[in-house]
Write a structure and sequence with these properties.
The chain is an alpha/beta fold and about 300 residues long. It has 9 helices and 8 strands. Helix 1 packs across helix 8, helix 3 packs parallel to helix 4 and helix 6 packs across helix 7. The mean pLDDT is about 95.
Length: about 300
């Protein structure tokens, strides 16, 4: 057992498996008491839910943990998750927002339900738990929130719902950091890359095998979910007290800090631009050198 989070109380949402499980176990190993939140039911024929199994793992290693099964996608669920920490351990110091789902489809095939489900769990889920936690953190003038974004937020075909939610989380993180910083609270985000049930689904494996790209499967198998936790522990600790509002990439053997958006180029004039002025200026200034990341494909010849 370590002591980097000794005396702290943490919540990890979606921690019945994958990255969240690794985070919960590692946080407990550093001395924190943990609420293991996961909405997943028990497997057919089993009695223990995934959250229960993680709690048992933590206790077997000498840690303290309790399970919570509420959904982050409802305001009541978000509040109940926070209440679980208070009822079980009397306080809360750390909130790790990790819960997530996938409903991948190209946008022209995506249903309203597939869009809403992903936005609800990821973006609303971060809001509901963070709102409840921030009421408490503001009063006690301390706290750590670690949000989970994704590199898919930078653009990934077939994941417009997921990308929208994940990039929304980055904006949410920046704003929460500004709102809560004066109370001694830090809010940061990670963009983890690991081999989990979400990234290593049977559909993905089968698609890789069909295309002959088995190296992609091997690559993701080498990225262990538990390797995300060390950065989360650091962000949750007192050592990261001055790090606020930033987002980090993390995978096995690699940690990176993302730059914040800046204006790359600018054109100026007194007064407003006319339409003709914009058309004349853009090709040789702001748009010069820009490349289309997804250029139009040539149409197949029509049969004669």
């Amino acid at each position: 057992m370590g002591d980097k989070l000794k005396g702290k109380v943490a919540i990890v949402t979606g921690s019945g498996g994958g990255i969240g499980r690794g985070e919960a176990i590692a946080i407990a190993a550093e001395g924190a008491k943990v609420v293991v939140n996961d909405v997943s039911p028990a497997a057919p024929g089993a009695t223990e839910r995934p959250a229960d199994k993680v709690v048992a793992e933590i206790k077997a290693k000498g840690g303290e943990a309790v399970a919570n099964y509420d959904s982050v996608a409802t305001p009541e669920g978000g509040e109940n998750i926070i209440k679980t920490a208070l009822n079980a351990f009397g306080k809360l110091d750390i909130l790790v927002n990790n819960a997530g789902i996938l409903r991948d489809k190209m946008v022209f095939n995506m249903t309203n339900e597939e869009w809403d489900a992903v936005i609800k769990v990821h973006l609303y889920g971060h809001f509901y738990t963070s709102r409840a936690a921030c009421v408490l953190f503001r009063q006690q003038r301390s706290g750590r929130i670690i949000n989970t974004s994704s590199i898919s937020g930078l653009g990934n075909r077939g994941q417009s719902n997921y990308a929208a939610a994940k990039e929304g989380i980055v904006g949410f993180t920046r704003t929460l950091a500004l709102e809560m910083g004066k109370y001694g609270v830090t809010v940061n985000a990670i963009r983890p890359n690991a081999g989990t049930q979400m990234t290593m689904s049977d559909d993905m494996k089968q698609a890789a095998e069909r295309s002959g790209n088995t190296s992609l499967v091997k690559y993701y198998e080498s990225l262990k979910p538990e390797d995300i936790a060390p950065l989360v522990i650091w962000l949750a600790s007192d050592a990261a007290a001055n790090v606020n509002g930033r987002n980090f990439f993390i995978q096995t053997g690699r940690i990176a800090l993302f730059s914040e958006p800046v204006q790359e180029k600018v054109i100026l004039k007194q007064g407003a631009f006319t339409v003709d002025e914009v058309f004349a200026a853009m090709p040789t200034t702001l748009a010069q050198g820009l490349k289309n990341p997804a250029p139009k494909e040539a149409e197949a010849p029509k049969p004669q």
